[in-house]
Design brief:
This protein is of the alpha/beta class and about 450 residues long. The protein contains 15 helices and 19 strands. The strands form five sheets. The protein has a seven-stranded mixed β-sheet with strand order 7-6-15-16-17-14-18. β11 and β12 form a beta hairpin. The chain is globular and about 65 Å long.
C-alpha cells in the first residue's frame, strides 16, 4: 500500500481528509483529479471503511453494506458507474424477506401481497385508500409512519420488534427520518424536500419493484480499492495507521494538524470519522450523538448440496433470536461459491446485555439459532469469526435535529472544517448517500470563492 511521507507535502498545505471510507475516498479522488493537493488519513491498516471485504474458509464476506444500487441519472450513480467500468461485476434482481409467524414476507413485494392473510391485506388496503389524518404535532415517529402505511397488525408483526433490535430504540422514540434516510448537505442540514410529479413517483416505485443490485465479483472492497487507485493515480497521498491528535487554529480556521507527532499545514479539513471524536479533538464540550455498535458473526458450514438462497438477506424480528439479520453470500455468488460449504453472516447491534457476553459465547448462541431456524446443524459448523464495528450506525431519536444543532456548533464555528458522511455527518446513509456526500463536499471546495 502506497503511503505518503508528510515531509514531501508540507509545502502544499493540502486538503486533509480524515477517514478513507466511501465519502473520504470519493471527495479526495475528485479533489486530486481537479489538481488540488489532498491527503487522506486513515487509522485502520487498509482503506474502505465499512466497504471492506475478507475471505473466510474460501468464502468472500463483507463488512457493512452487502450490495448497492446505482441510478446513473444521479451524481453518485455516474461516479459509481465510472468506477465499476473497470471491474467485473455481478448484477441480479434484488430481494430480501422478513421471517415472522412461520413464513417469509418478501420485499420488494411484487405479488406476495396477494398471499397475505386477509386481516393484513384488509389493513394495508385500508391504509392506502383512506385519507391520511393530519400529521401529529412535533417530530413524526417511525411507529406512526410504519403503522399508517402498513396497518397496525403488520406493523406489530414485522416492524416493531425488528427496528428495536436494529436501533436499540422503541419505534415510538425513533424519528421517521431514520427510515426515510433523508438527504443532508455538507453543512449538516436537511436537504430541502423536492416533491416530484405523480408520474415521477410512479416511475420510481415501478423501478424499485424490478431493481437490480451491483456487486463486484471480488467483494465490495474491490470497489473502494478502485477509487483508492484513482486517488493515488491523480497524485493524492494516503496515510494509513495514522490519526489526528490535535489541530492548530487561528482566526477561525484550522491552519495545521498534528499526525503522529508531525505537523501538517492544511487548507481545508474534511472529517468523516465519528463526530463525537471530532468534538473531543477540538476540545468542544457538546452533547454526544447516539450511535450503535454493530457485531457481525461469520459462520461457515459443511454442506452436501447447494441450497437455493433467493434473498440477499433475511430479517428476524423474533426477540428470541440473538441477531436481527442474516446475509447470504450464496445469494450473490451462487455457482461461483464453494460447492462443499456455505457462509452466513449474522448481524446484530450491541445492546447493554450483549456487552457483557464474550464473542465465543455469542458465536455459540448464533450457531444454536441457525440450527433452530433449520438452516444448518451446529455439528456442521466449520469456521467462525466475529467483527465489531464501533459506533458505526447513527440512530435518530425524536429530538435528533435539535441535538445535532448543538453538537455541530463547534464545526460551524470553524471556516474550513467540514464533518460529513455517515459518521462525520451523523447521516444514516447507504453507499450512494456516502458517495453523494463526497461529491457535494468536493464541489463545495472546488467552487468556493470565499469562506466555506
Amino acid at each position: 500500500m502506497q503511503e505518503c511521507a508528510l515531509t514531501t507535502i508540507k509545502k502544499t498545505s493540502p486538503n486533509l481528509i480524515i477517514g478513507a471510507g466511501l465519502t473520504g475516498l470519493t471527495a479526495g479522488t475528485l479533489l486530486a483529479e481537479a489538481g488540488r493537493p489532498c491527503v487522506i488519513v486513515e487509522r485502520e491498516s487498509e482503506p474502505g471503511g465499512l466497504c471492506r471485504s475478507f475471505t473466510l474458509d474460501g468464502i468472500v464476506f463483507d463488512l457493512g453494506p452487502h450490495v448497492f444500487f446505482i441510478d446513473p441519472e444521479t451524481p453518485p450513480g455516474r461516479f459509481a458507474v465510472g468506477v465499476l467500468e473497470t471491474l467485473p461485476v455481478i448484477r441480479r434482481p434484488f430481494a430480501f424477506a422478513i421471517q415472522a409467524r412461520g413464513r417469509m414476507w418478501k420485499f420488494p413485494n411484487h405479488f406476495d401481497f396477494l398471499h397475505y392473510p386477509w386481516k393484513y391485506k384488509r389493513e394495508v388496503l385500508s391504509s392506502l385508500m383512506k385519507k391520511r389524518p393530519p400529521l401529529p404535532p412535533g417530530p413524526i415517529s417511525a411507529a406512526f409512519e410504519l403503522s399508517e402505511k402498513s396497518g397496525q397488525s403488520l406493523y406489530e408483526l414485522l416492524f416493531k420488534d425488528l427496528f428495536l433490535k436494529k436501533t436499540l430504540l422503541p419505534t415510538n422514540a425513533l424519528h421517521h427520518h431514520w427510515l426515510a434516510r433523508v438527504d443532508r448537505t455538507v453543512d449538516n442540514e436537511l436537504e430541502p424536500y423536492r416533491p416530484g410529479s405523480r408520474a415521477a413517483i410512479l416511475k420510481r416505485v415501478m423501478k424499485k419493484l424490478r431493481e437490480k443490485y451491483f456487486y463486484p465479483e471480488k467483494g465490495l472492497q474491490a470497489f473502494t480499492d478502485a477509487i483508492k487507485d484513482r486517488f493515488l493515480a491523480a497524485g493524492g497521498a494516503l496515510r494509513l495507521g495514522a490519526s489526528v491528535a490535535a489541530f492548530e487554529r487561528r482566526d477561525g480556521r484550522i491552519t495545521a494538524a498534528t499526525l503522529d507527532g508531525e505537523t501538517l499545514p492544511v487548507d481545508n479539513v474534511v472529517w468523516t470519522a465519528p463526530i463525537n471524536a471530532l468534538n473531543a479533538t477540538l476540545g468542544a464540550d457538546f452533547p454526544r450523538l447516539p450511535s450503535v455498535s454493530m457485531l457481525l458473526v461469520y459462520l461457515t458450514y459443511d454442506r452436501t448440496r447447494r441450497m437455493k438462497r433467493p434473498y440477499v438477506y433475511t430479517y428476524h424480528p423474533d426477540p428470541a433470536l440473538i441477531f436481527n439479520r442474516i446475509y447470504y453470500p450464496e445469494s450473490i455468488f451462487r455457482k461461483a461459491s464453494p460447492r462443499d460449504r456455505e457462509g452466513l453472516c449474522l448481524e446484530f447491534n450491541v445492546s447493554d446485555d450483549l456487552k457483557t457476553i464474550s464473542h465465543e459465547e455469542i458465536i455459540r448462541r448464533c450457531a444454536a439459532d441457525v440450527e433452530r431456524l433449520g438452516l444448518y446443524p451446529a455439528s456442521a459448523l466449520r469456521q467462525t469469526r466475529a467483527v465489531e464495528l464501533p459506533a458505526c450506525m447513527p440512530v435518530y431519536g425524536l429530538d435528533y435535529e435539535a441535538r445535532m444543532r448543538e453538537t455541530y456548533a463547534a464545526v460551524r464555528g470553524i471556516e474550513n472544517l467540514y464533518a460529513v458522511g455517515r459518521q462525520g455527518g451523523f447521516y444514516f446513509c447507504l453507499t450512494p448517500g456516502a458517495m453523494s456526500q463526497g461529491i457535494k463536499l468536493a464541489e463545495r471546495l472546488l467552487g468556493q470563492s470565499g469562506p466555506g
